[in-house]
Amino acid sequence: MQLKEMVASSDNIVFFGGAGVSTESGIPDFRSVDGLYHQKFRYPPETILSHTFYERHKEEFFDFYRQKLIAPEARPNAAHVKLAQWEQDGKLKAVITQNIDGLHQMAGSHEVLELHGSVLRNYCERCGKFYGVDAILHSTGAPKCSCGGDIKPDVVLYEESLDMQMMEQALEYISRADMLIIGGTSLVVYPAAGLVQYYRGHKLVVINKGEVGAGVRADLTIRAPIGEVLSQL
């Protein structure tokens, strides 16, 4: 198996992952909303998950957020577990993820760059007090801090900018990697799609069930669910 040989001969692997890594843990991609005729929400997900919508319609935002973005029952799948194992073995240097579910850390990965933040972290916009995910799950409407301020999830909403320091760190890891594995993402969303262009090596592997953006020049492409593929290694 070509992938197996590539991994065996690498000791500076970087993994870049998207929504497809979590779908095997039972977390649906929020874009695959409840079918055209069963749509519960009045606006498309991209609208609800925007900074403007959050500011203007907090209750409706949190209604969607609790139902669609928090998955307390989700557990790491074979992909998360294998990546954590590679890190422990010293082969994998970092996981760069667009996911906000914290499953990589739950599986035991330590060096995880969460480009879009995490549902597990929430802060009071007034006093900065930290809240875990339960504060959101077990509240109704717009959750409030003990100081009276609004609690905001530490996730990057549409219209908000990414953490540039983390982006630079991701670029650094990718440019130094001897192998880059991209999994569970179509790589059409920027700036994530642009990160891949910083890879200098000759072991660029894409593992994704669906189509991948046209500009990705992979050395190996595997059209299959990532957990299924990595569990065979």
TrEMBL record:
**Gene Ontology cellular component annotations, sorted alphabetically:** cytoplasm
**Co-factor remark:** Binds 1 zinc ion per subunit.
Name residues in a coiled coil. Answer: none
Q: List localization entries.
A: Cytoplasm
Query: Can you state which reaction this protein catalyses?
Result: N(6)-acetyl-L-lysyl-[protein] + NAD(+) + H2O = 2''-O-acetyl-ADP-D-ribose + nicotinamide + L-lysyl-[protein]
Cofactor needs? Zn(2+)
Binding, NAD(+): 19, 23, 30-31, 98, 100-101, 116, 185-186, 208, 210, 226
Chief place where the protein resides: cytoplasm
Binding-site residues for Zn(2+), renumbered to this chain? 124, 127, 145, 147
Active site, renumbered: 116
Function, please? Answer: NAD-dependent protein deacetylase which modulates the activities of several enzymes which are inactive in their acetylated form.
Annotated family: Belongs to the sirtuin family. Class U subfamily.
Quote the protein name from its UniProt record: NAD-dependent protein deacetylase
Species for this entry: Vescimonas coprocola
